[in-house]
Amino acid sequence: MSDISLQQVLQTPDAIEYEVFLQWLTEDVVRQISAEQNEPEWMLAHRLKSLDIFHSLPMPKRGPDLSGLDLENIVYYARAKAGQEGKIATDWSQVDPAIKAKFERLGIPEAERKYLAGVGGQFDSQTVYHNIKEKRAEQGVIFEDMADALQSHPELVQKYFMKLVPPTDHKFAALHGAVRSGGTFIYVPEGVEVTDPLQAYFRMNTYAGGQFEHTLIVIDDNARGDYIEGCSAPKFDTSSLHAGLVEIFVGKNSHMRYSSVENRSTNTYNLNTKRSLIDDDSYMEWINGNLGSCVTMLYPCSILKGKRSKTESIGIAVAGAGQNQDTGMKVIHIGEDSSSTIVSKSISKDGGISTYRGIVDMKKTATGAVNSTECDALLMDDRSVSNTIPVIETNHGSQTVAHEASAGKVDETELFYLMSRGLDEEHAMAMIVNGFISPIVKRLPLEYAGELNKLIEMEMEWSVG
Question: What is the pTM of this model?
Answer without folding.
Answer: 0.87
